[in-house]
Amino acid sequence: MQEKERPAGSQSLFRGLLLIEILSNYPNGCPLAHLSTLAGLNKSTVHRLLQGLHSCGYVTPAPAAGSYRLTTKFVAVGQKVLSSLNIIHVAAPHLEALNIATGETINFSSREDDHAILIYKLEPTTGMLRTRAYIGQHMPLYSSAMGKIYMAFGHPDYVKTYWENHREQLLPLTCNTITELPAMYDELAQIRESRVAMDREENELGVSCIAAPVFDIHGRVSYAVSISLSTSRLGQIGENNLIEPLRETALAISSELGFIESDRAIS
């Protein structure tokens, strides 16, 4: 923000926030002289601001003489912010943009025990297919795109346990449903690599679905977003034309939850 855009009397506040941002890059502490240079402020001003932040418990002297670092009070504040987030409020604008961009049904789910539960849905704007899915619906993990996302990014031992506990429920809903554990392991490995899961008419003939994971600040996947459409329309549009905007939407929501994308390439 430029100086002329800042509210009157807020100079010290903005300078203090600037110091906080700089110190966040120095977990072991930053010397006062270096901090002054990075902030473009004289040492006396920086020292005065640091004393104020120290008195509030946000900054503390670091082990190295003349250095300062942030305190864990920021962790507590950050956790309160994260816990207050309403996931639908955060995700809805991104999901609505995806709905407009693709014209297809957009689904958003959360993980609940051994199911994916649909918590938000947008009907197609141009596509003709109206899916039978409804908000509050529990979807099996093994036969749904979003369900496979949760298995792929869950605990490594979870899939085997899930398979053993639900053996009698793992029915072939269509001829494409994966019901053999080795085949599912192969499927999940591909999902982890591409960060995209497919339901290729595994729940219902004629209906396909593409899903992507939503990561939180800890890198966990508690939510997933998907696009549902008829298989014939998917063939007309092409998977790649939907996968990219889907990934971008999932990543945008992840970023709002505090997730920082690594440098790992997504193939």
Automatic annotation (TrEMBL):
InterPro entries: GAF-like_dom_sf (IPR029016), HTH_MetabolicPath_Reg (IPR050707), Tscrpt_reg_IclR_C (IPR014757), Tscrpt_reg_IclR_N (IPR005471), WH-like_DNA-bd_sf (IPR036388), WH_DNA-bd_sf (IPR036390). The keyword DNA-binding applies. Residues 73-259 form the IclR-ED domain. It comes from the Bacteria. Keywords: DNA-binding, Transcription, Transcription regulation. SUPFAM superfamilies: GAF domain-like, Winged helix' DNA-binding domain. This is IclR family transcriptional regulator YiaJ. It comes from Intestinirhabdus alba.
